[in-house]
Amino acid sequence: MILVLGPRFSGKTTYLRSLGLPADAVADDAELLVAQTDEDGLNALMEYLAGMRVVAMGDIQRGVVPSSARERRQRDRAGRVQQHLAMRAERVVLMCCGIPLPLQEGPCA
């Protein structure tokens, strides 16, 4: 699986299209799936996403910490999902200004 991270409008969609994969092989905006999943369903969601060919998630870990407890929990869950996927990914790419920056090649040991 390829994990593509980056803030909004960083070029993730353009990069995903350049891979030439069918739409059903790509989980785009996966952070929205995390937001719709309660704590009990998080492990199942992580397994589902790990089975995709490509997962793209907004990089919501940087920036201002949300003031509401609900938004902080959502941000924490998204961070846990990103960590889980990065450990299992064949490749992790950070998109910055439309440039794919490789962070990891091969799964973590």
UniProtKB/TrEMBL annotation:
GO terms for biological process: cobalamin biosynthetic process. GO terms for molecular function: adenosylcobinamide kinase activity; nucleotide binding. InterPro entries: CobU/CobP, P-loop_NTPase. Gene3D superfamilies: P-loop containing nucleotide triphosphate hydrolases (3.40.50.300). It comes from the Bacteria. Transmembrane segments: none annotated. This is Adenosylcobinamide kinase. It comes from Berryella wangjianweii.
